[in-house]
């Protein structure tokens, strides 16, 4: 089985929209640090086609899928909110104990990392980094096509 890591923010959960709509987003100390916004991770909307696409991966016999996300150190509620978010949108039997919160993604062993940003070791990942939102992988349809999933 191929191991696939899927980032949350910007890949499955719409962090950009969440930070723009957050009521404290335009006040100090959150300007420039939206990851510190209280509760920002709790109620994010899904990225278009993300839930259906990740479910295809989770149910595919050739893939072992894990969520791999970075939670801000200075926002400890985010760690809990990310777990609650995953359970809200995915069947628990498919994702139970499949959430990894890590600041060093390059240390993970696997075949694919689907991530929208190069930070926290994503661009140094030893497997294939599928740069979500890039010209090559602009959306979930392009990712599934690359992975030969119909």
The gyration radius over C-alpha positions equals 15 Å
Instruction: Report the mean per-residue pLDDT as an integer.
Output: 96
Percent of residues in helices comes to 25-40%
Shape: globular
How many domain modules? 1
Structural class computed from helices and strand pairing: alpha/beta
The CATH superfamily label reads HAD superfamily/HAD-like
The secondary-structure element order is: EHHEHHEEEH
For this entry, give a set of tags.
single chain, 15% strand, Rossmann fold, alpha/beta, 5 strands
Overview of this structure, please?
- By secondary structure, the chain is an alpha/beta fold.
- The protein has one domain (2-146): Rossmann fold (3-Layer(aba) Sandwich), CATH 3.40.50.1000.
- Helices cover 27% and strands 15% of the residues.
- The protein is globular, with a radius of gyration of 15 Å.
- The two termini are 18 Å apart.
């Amino acid at each position: 089985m191929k191991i696939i890591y899927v980032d949350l923010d910007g890949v499955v959960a719409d962090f950009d929209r969440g930070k723009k709509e957050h009521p404290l987003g335009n006040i100090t100390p959150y300007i420039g640090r939206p990851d510190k916004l209280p509760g920002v991770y709790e109620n994010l909307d899904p990225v278009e086609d993300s839930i259906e696409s990740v479910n295809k991966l989770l149910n595919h016999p050739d893939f072992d899928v894990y969520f791999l996300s970075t939670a801000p150190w200075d926002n400890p509620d985010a760690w809990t909110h990310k777990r609650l978010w995953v359970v809200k949108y995915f069947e628990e039997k498919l994702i139970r104990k499949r959430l990894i919160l890590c600041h060093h993604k390059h240390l993970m062993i696997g075949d694919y990392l689907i991530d929208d940003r190069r930070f926290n070791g994503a661009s140094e990942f030893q497997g294939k980094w599928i740069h979500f939102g890039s010209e090559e992988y602009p959306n979930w349809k392009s990712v599934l096509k690359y992975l030969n999933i119909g």
